[in-house]
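Predict both folds.
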Amino acid sequence: MNETFPEMKSEIYGDRLFPLLRWIIIIILTGAGVGLLVGLITAMITGPVSSIIIFFFLFIITGSLTGFLIYETVGLKDQRIYNILVNDKGISFLNREDTTIFEIKYEDLAFNAEGYKQDILSVSSGIGKSSSFKMNLCVFIKGKDQKIRKRFVNFNSIPLKNKYALMGHFLKGVRLFRPELNIDPRVYRDFYLDEKSLRFDPEIRRKDFIIKAISITVAFLILILVFYYTG
């Protein structure tokens, strides 16, 4: 298909700030770990057993967290997502060197394996009682084994300025290259997209935020009244 479909790349908040904050946290945790180690040694010499146990467990927790952050920052740097690219092939998640970590191609998208009419869905980020207002874009992918699996398209892995514009561009590609797939109308509402143009509409988001704020306020006031009259 010789269609013109421009690529769109992510715009990131705090491109340099977040790595700096990560290292600041590592330094703070390292300092805390050293302090706890000194406290542990002191407790082993002079303190009671309870102090030794407390310092030991705090040191283990702090040391483990520090080690995990260092490993994630240094050891997994090539597997961390730094950019997202949407083009005529699909959506690619890229590392700092713009090498593809993984991708979702339009050609691999499949019909809903769960028997529903919609093939592109918006699904809550939680399940049951843990469900939330935050929604994820959900697609179905046919793997090399020909099995169809549900997959979330995670636009929340990095702080994006143009998250909803990227979503809209990806859905525009779905419409263009896989027109036989059905997009759930709720996707447009949940991700603040104009249904016809698939462009991000800040007015839709503003109205949604107002409704959610009112709902939370009313629920809070009802809770206060319940406690007031039953307390």
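Second protein follows, with its predicted structure tokens after the sequence.
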Amino acid sequence: MSKYSNTKARIEKKFSKNAKELLLALFPSLHGNDFTVESDSFESHRGRVWHEQHVVWFGPDYYGESDYMDCEWLLYSWLIDNTTDWDGIGKAHDATGWDPDIAVDESPFYSPWRGASRAEIISHCRDLVRAGVTLERMR
């Protein structure tokens, strides 16, 4: 076995651990939730790579089932949701009377973080934590 065979999986776990720590710093209300390490995989040029990722469990929903989400995905979706101009999209549609036959270009209102790399997201969230940004609740 090569000494570099598990490098990618260790990097994935490190990203995931950093995302968990940033998520807890940005959302202090998540301290009561359960965090676990789950296994996942992705296809790379060397084949399927299995890695571990940190996930946060949210309490039972209406049907009594608990859901979990990947910590990295929560940071990414929060960043996009909070930097998208939802009011601008609504006003653009209001200007056309919400007519489905008229195409509205929503792209100027989209978040600039769409398509950002994980490293950029982690770096930006670190800057937010350093600046003292916290949010009250998620979900």
